[in-house]
Amino acid sequence: MAVTKAVKDKTTDMTRGNPLKQMIWFSIPLIIGNIFQQFYSMVDTIIVGRTIGVQALAAVGSSGALSFFILGFAMGLAGGFAIVVSQRFGAGDNENVRRSVATGAMLSAAFAVALTLLSALSARWLLEVMHTPQDIIDDAWRYLVIIFWGVPATMFYNYISSVIRALGDSKTPLYFLLVASVLNIVLDFVCILNFHMGVAGAAVATIFSQAVSGFLCLIYVGKHFPILRLKKSDWRFDRNFAWYHLRFGIPMAVQNSVIALGAMAVQTILNGFGAIAVAGYTAASKIEQMVSQVMMSFGLTLATYTGQNYGAMKLDRIRDGVKKITIILLLISAAGAVLMILFGRSLTYIFIDAGEQNVEEVVRYSRRYLNVSVCFYPALSAIFIFRSALQGIGNTGIVLVGSAVELICRLVGALILAIPLGYLGVCLAGPFAWAGAAVLFLIIYIRDIRKLSKKFQCGELATAV
Fold it and tell me: Which GO cellular component terms are attached (predicted)?
């Protein structure tokens, strides 16, 4: 089915044209958006650390892995459902684009309710299981339970923005994310400094800002994306079609949560080193995410690109796109490593008040983590490249296997290395997991590309109708 002129104005067909140019221009808004999203997450941490104290910083940090366990699952579902949209759009099948969007929306709503109830009611127990230090567990719970009650807002924004990106528009979600970022910063100061809500204020600001961003996207979509104006018939629930979406959504969701499980295990071991070590690790993790968000942005671009070209059965373009993104991310890995080594110490000071006790100890813990992790940035970039390519071409099973490999490597690394090496062993756990998963994804990508070559030569393509 042909794409209308009105739709072309707001979408990008990535099945033709210069792959490198398309992916760079598509990635730029994603990079800006992800950095801003990370920036206002950092602002939460900075304001908490500098206005409330190191204990509060440790409380927010100790809840990070547990938070991502639930939010990562929600975001993985949203991204997985949108891959089906990109495949149908690449095939020029507008009717099934609409059906896919409606099916994804229904599934997202059901999962949002279930995740909210499950996570909010179990938050305190999970913090206790992770041996969260008693001097920070109350603040950690206050922050976490609000984040969990806001799961529907998080899933709402991520699903709408993922659908828009699946149609080749990476700019629209950025505009509203920028608005949400500014709103989040303002609300941080209002809730924490004016209303004296403590760490709970940072959580309220984050959730409210995400909800606003989601509603703005929805309003804009209704006015400017004719292809997404759903009909009553689009909302008919088809179990087979829903299952096809779950084949993409569940592996990506589980992938995120399994990674979070590994991070929770590492956090449990880290908690044993005390609040100061937790604060230093938290600051370093936030700093590092500025680099990983750039890598992730290109990964999201590659998932959309491969999804559309898979739908159009253009294997040469998939190969070409993966090769060029690999070169870009290797360069970004090198640049990120240099920046972390040169400025990691200075950036850590942003998160803490110079007048606090144990400032230098917090900085020392942060620097140690950064100096270790930068050596493994090429492996981290390889995960984003080959995992995204595999998701785009429909190999969802390997995502689960890769997540399991990453979890095992992280657990083994943390449990074994922390005994002889202490905090340094904890720092090595994540990079050890990156290396294991990267090797697996690279091998499977090479294998699957060869299989696709034979399939496309026979004119075969797995579709969902």
Answer: plasma membrane
